[in-house]
């Protein structure tokens, strides 16, 4: 019975130390986001619901790689990008 109590006490102390919040977590939040931003061109839609769309597959694929996706309307002038 004493060994079980010692084991539970050791486990509780170990979990308490591992789960303890640190100052490092707050420091990394203020540094910024290093994920790249990738623009995806929209496609014209024949639907009455929307004029343009982006396939979810494209967005999901890029987000799985760690990127942030920004829609770029297909009717945007090319000079704005260069």
Question: Can you put this structure into words, describing what you see?
Answer:
- This protein has 82 residues and is an alpha+beta fold.
- The chain has helices at 2-18, 23-31, 56-64; strands spanning 37-41, 43-44, 52-53, 68-72.
- The strands form 2 sheets. It has a two-stranded parallel ribbon with strand order 1-4.
- A hairpin with a 7-residue loop joins strand 2 and strand 3.
- Keywords: Hydrolase, Signal.
- It comes from Elysia marginata.
- GO terms for molecular function: hydrolase activity.
End-to-end separation in angstroms reads: 74 Å
The coarse overall form would be flat
Sheet having the most strands: 2 strands, parallel
Segments where pLDDT lies below 50 for 5+ residues?
7-19
Strand content: 15-25%
Strand order of the largest sheet: 1-4
Helix content: 40-55%
Round the Cα radius of gyration to an integer and report it. Answer: 25 Å
Total tally of structural domains: 1
Number of strands: 4
Mean pLDDT: 74
Structural class: alpha+beta
Number of helices: 3
- Elements, N to C (H/E): HHEEEHE
GO molecular function, one term: hydrolase activity
InterPro entries: Class_I_gatase-like
Keywords: Hydrolase, Signal
Protein name: Gamma-glutamyl hydrolase
